[in-house]
Amino acid sequence: LAANKLVAQDGIFAMVGHIGTSQNIAAMPVLFDKGVVNFFPVSASREMHEPFHRLKFAAWADYVDQVGGQLPALVHDKGAKRVCAIHQDDEFGLEIVRGTEAGLKTIGMTLTEKTSYKRGATDFSSQVARLKAAGCDLVVMGTIIRETVGTIAEARKVGFAPTFFASYAAYSELIPKLGGAAMDGLYVAMMLAFPYLDDATPNVRFWANKYKTKWGEDPTALSTYGYTVIDAFVRAAHRAGPRLDTDAFVKAMESITIPADLFGGPELSFGPTKRLGSDATRLSQLVDGR
Questions:
Q1: Is residue 223 over pLDDT 90?
Q2: Containing H/E element for 258?
Q3: Mean pLDDT score of the chain, rounded to an integer?
Q4: 110 alpha-carbon distance from chain centroid
Q5: Coil, helix or strand for 54?
Q6: 3-class SS at 7?
Q7: Alpha helices (H) along 44-90
Q8: Element containing residue 284 per DSSP (H, E)
Q9: What is the spatial order of strands in the sheet that 113-117 belongs to?
Q10: Confidence band (pLDDT; 50, 70, 90) for 36?
């Protein structure tokens, strides 16, 4: 309904930074029917760039690449023998499982155990008990924020201490804010570094303090996402030239290279048959609440 309103009544040129996997999947047919670009959605589902559509442009690695790309090295570094997964019972969670299975396949391993929960669940005791009983020493989490906190908190309560590893969906300041010190140790696949006010990188530190001065609050991971999405959109619009329409914008995107951003994100490039900017990821660990 919202997409229909934006397209039919407001006549939008592009949907920029639309958040949520299911929301994007529902909106894209509405957009594409009217020639509206879906630009850098805040979702890492493969549907954001597959199957190919000329009006799809996704920036960073999807959930399968995030998990599958980082998991083998993490398994090696931790000496993990029994890798398991907990996931939300929907397409998002299944993508995490697919990435887990793909990553393990490259090192000749398979999932020891997996368990799921319904969206909106608040009690994870049965899932944690199942993972503990299976002797899991590394748990991949197809969880977002509240579910990440709930799962790890329950594990700490029952003395279950595997390595926890989640996707970019759990890369949020809310994890330590809601869960406290119990969340320390969590690993997350990510692309853009968290912008702390005292960041060691001068450019990030300057940006973060400028952000706080303007908005009166500390920046978050989503702040960096919003900034880089709009920066990329402006670069493409400039490249398209003064006669900006859908065809000119798509043509500009198919020949553009967007340089690595100040938050450490990778260089992004597209082409006539390429709708994902980069499949590169980084690994971050929560230590002392940061």
A1: yes
A2: strand 257-258
A3: 96
A4: 24
A5: coil
A6: helix
A7: 63-78
A8: strand 282-285
A9: 113-117, 83-88, 138-142, 163-166, 187-190, 282-285
A10: very high
Q: Provide CB contacts within 8 A for 94, sequence distance 6+.
A: 87, 142
Per-residue pLDDT band for 157 (boundaries 50, 70, 90) equals very high
Least trusted range by pLDDT, from 68-77, 86-95, 251-260: 86-95
Task: Look at residue 254 in the predicted model and tell me its pLDDT.
Answer: 97
- The whole-number pLDDT of residue 183 equals 98
* DSSP code of residue 186: -
Which of 75, 280, 80 is closest to 192 using CA atoms?
280
Structure tokens at 158: 């029952």
Residue 21, pLDDT > 90, answer no
Residue 161, helix vs strand vs coil? coil
In this prediction, residue 262 carries a pLDDT of 94
The Cα–Cα gap between 207 and 219 comes to 9
Round to whole Å and give the CA distance between 59 and 274.
11
Q: Tally the residues of the chain.
A: 290
Q: Do the beta carbons of residue 194 and residue 171 sit within 8 Å?
A: yes
CA angle 200, 204, 206 (to 5 degrees): 100
Tokens of 174: 């809310």
Cβ burial 78-114 (10 Å sphere, 16+ → b, else e): eebebbbbbbbeeebbbbbbbbbbbbbeeeebebbbb
Two structure tokens written together for 274:
């390429």
* CA distance between the termini of the chain: 38
d(CA 109, CA 107): 6
**Beta-carbon contacts of residue 192 (< 8 Å; ≥ 6 apart):** 221, 224, 225, 228, 261, 263, 264, 265
